[in-house]
Amino acid sequence: MTQEILFYVFSFLTLLSGILVVANPVSRNPVTSAMFLVLTILFMAGLFVLLHAFFLAAVQILVYAGAVIVLFLFVIMLLDLKEEETRRVRKIGAGIGILAVASVFGLMARTIGTIPPTASSGASRPTLEGLTAPLGNALFKQYLLPFEILSILLLVAMVGVILLSKKDLR
To answer: pLDDT tens, position by position, for the chain (170 residues)?
Structure first.
C-alpha cells in the first residue's frame, strides 16, 4: 500500500516538474527551467527506486542530474541567454499543439482499451531484476554501436555550441 502511494506521489511530482520545465511560470530565465529539470530527474530516480532498480536510480542522479545538467547550465551561461521576451501565441500553432496532445492521449486511451483482461489481472507478473550485469551486457553487446554513436553526437554538439558561442576577438 505504501509503495502505491509513493508511486502516485512520485508520478505526480515528476509530471508537475516536467510541465514546469516547459511552462516555467516562476520566471522566463532558462536556468530556472534547468532546475525544474533536475527535480524531474530526481523524482524519476525515486520511481526507479520503487522498481528496485537501484543502479538505474543512482545512474539517473549521477549522470543526468549531475553531468548533463551541469553541461546544460554551462551552455546557458556560455551563451549568456537573457530572459526571453513574452511572445504572442499564434492561433495556428496553438491549435496544432492542442491537436497533437489530443492525438497522443487518444492513442494512449486506445492502447489501454485494447489490453486483454488476462494481462491486467496480475496472474503472471514479470520478474524485476535489479542486477547490473544484464544491463551492462545489453548495453555493451547488443547496443554498442548506438551507444558509441550517441556519445560522439554529444561530443560534437558540445564542441559545436562552444564554437558557435565564441566571441570574435578582433
So the answer is: 788 899 999 999 999 999 998 888 877 777 888 889 889 999 999 999 998 888 888 888 888 888 878 877 777 777 765 655 555 667 887 788 888 888 888 888 888 888 776 655 555 655 656 677 777 888 888 888 888 888 888 888 878 777 776 665 55
CA distance 151 to 64: 14
What is d(CA 79, CA 34) in angstroms, rounded to the nearest whole number? Answer: 15
pLDDT tens by residue, 72-106: 777 777 776 565 555 566 788 778 888 888 888 88
**Rounded CA separation 50/13 (Å):** 14
For residue 131, give the C-alpha cell. 542486477
Residues 6+ apart with CB under 8 A from 17: 36, 37, 39, 40, 43
Strands (E), 5-118: none
Give the number of other Cβ atoms within 10 Å of residue 83's Cβ.
Answer: 11
What is the model's pTM? 0.57
What are the residue ranges spanned by the domains of the chain? 1-84, 131-170
Architecture of domain 1-84: Up-down Bundle (1.20)
Helix axes of 144-165 and 69-79: crossing angle, nearest 10 degrees: 20
